[in-house]
Design a protein that fits this description.
This protein is α+β, with helices and mostly antiparallel strands. It contains 3 helices and 3 strands. Strand 2 and strand 3 form a beta hairpin.
Length: about 80
Amino acid sequence: MAETEKFSKSQIATLKHIQKKGFAGYRRVDGKPACPELEELVEAGYLEMWYQSMFGEDVYKLTEKGENLVRSLVG
């Protein structure tokens, strides 16, 4: 559980949401990522991200490392 302490409650809630839905898309604002706090999770290897140009959204999906983290949080 100590590993989750470096992430905000919002980041952890987003990880749980992505696990439930399979992915999450956030529309860019003025060409910048709408959720810059998720970049920390991408850099740490918990999420993978790609840009969906048709919708102008950044799409996030859990990596295996992210899946393991969320499973450990849920119990």
